[in-house]
Amino acid sequence: MEFLDKLSAVMEKLGGNGVFLTAGSKPNTMTASWGFVGVMWNKPIIVVPVRASRFTHGLIEEGGAFSVSAPLNESLNGLLAYFGSVSGRDVDKYAQKNITPVKCNKIDTYIIPGSCCHFECKVIYKNYIVKERLDERIIRTMYGDNSFHTMFYGEIVDAYYT
Ligand SMILES: Cc1cc2nc3c(=O)[nH]c(=O)nc-3n(C[C@H](O)[C@H](O)[C@H](O)COP(=O)(O)O)c2cc1C
User: Fold this and answer.
1) Using a 6 Å cutoff on CB, does residue 54 contact ligand 1?
2) Structural domain boundaries of the chain?
3) DSSP secondary structure string, 46-82?
4) Is the CB of 18 under 6 A from ligand 1?
5) Predicted local confidence at residue 145, as pLDDT
6) Is ligand 1 within 6 A of the CB of residue 143?
7) Backbone dihedral angles phi then psi of residue 84, each to the nearest 5 degrees
8) Residue 8: what pLDDT?
9) What is the spatial distance between Cα 54 and Cα 143, in angstroms, rounded to a whole number?
10) Atom of ligand 1 nearest to the CA of 32
């Protein structure tokens, strides 16, 4: 499958400094460091867990699509920290950081410019973390705010480097 060679770029960032997750025709970007990549229904898939409290959550629900931009080096680490610390509900993160997002090829949202591997994804499935099925220690340590994740399964419809 032609995308599989690029998936390691995302894997390297998950569990670490994270990736840029962008959604919306009027876009917003947040940082995500959890997720999966793989194959399902014979399609290459990225699964992103997004808490219902994130502004980006509503944009993914609305547009049915998201982009993932995985930095190829450490130069965007400061930006990842910023995009993961403030909400698009309160500020225009792009204006604050003087960034102009770039239009995607195949979905109606944007990518973050810079040295990245980009994935354009269409949501083809979603499910929810069900509290009653989750290990009690994880509920206690991860969900004090009671904002559980939605797991968005995005079919990768385009992948490229900038
Ligand atoms: C390194 C890092 C990783 C993060 N990973 C996730 C994640 O996987 N899922 C999630 O819902 N929030 C995650 N966050 C938190 C969001 O990025 C953060 O709440 C952000 O401000 C949400 O922005 P928004 O309200 O504009 O969508 C992470 C934050 C950081 C700094």
Assistant:
1) yes
2) 4-161
3) EEEEEETTSHHHHHHHHHSEEEEEEESSGGGHHHHHH
4) yes
5) 83
6) no
7) -95, 5
8) 81
9) 14
10) 5
Q: Give, using CA atoms, the residue closest to atom 19 of ligand 1.
A: 84
Rounded Cα gap, residues 27 and 96, in angstroms: 14
Can you list the residues of the chain whose pLDDT is less than 50? none
Closest CA to 56 of 14, 20, 80, 28: 28
Q: Is the shortest distance between the CB of 45 and ligand 1 below 6 Å?
A: no
Topology annotation, domain 4-161: Pnp Oxidase; Chain A (2.30.110)
Pocket test for ligand 1, best of 31, 34, 147 (most atoms within 8 A of CB): 31
pTM for the predicted model, two decimal places: 0.96
**115-157, pLDDT tens digit by residue?**
999 999 999 999 999 999 999 999 999 998 888 999 999 999 9
Q: Which atom of ligand 1 is nearest the CA belonging to 28?
A: 26
pLDDT of residue 48: 97
Check pocket membership of 76 for ligand 1, CB cut-off 6 A. no
Q: Residues, the chain, total?
A: 162
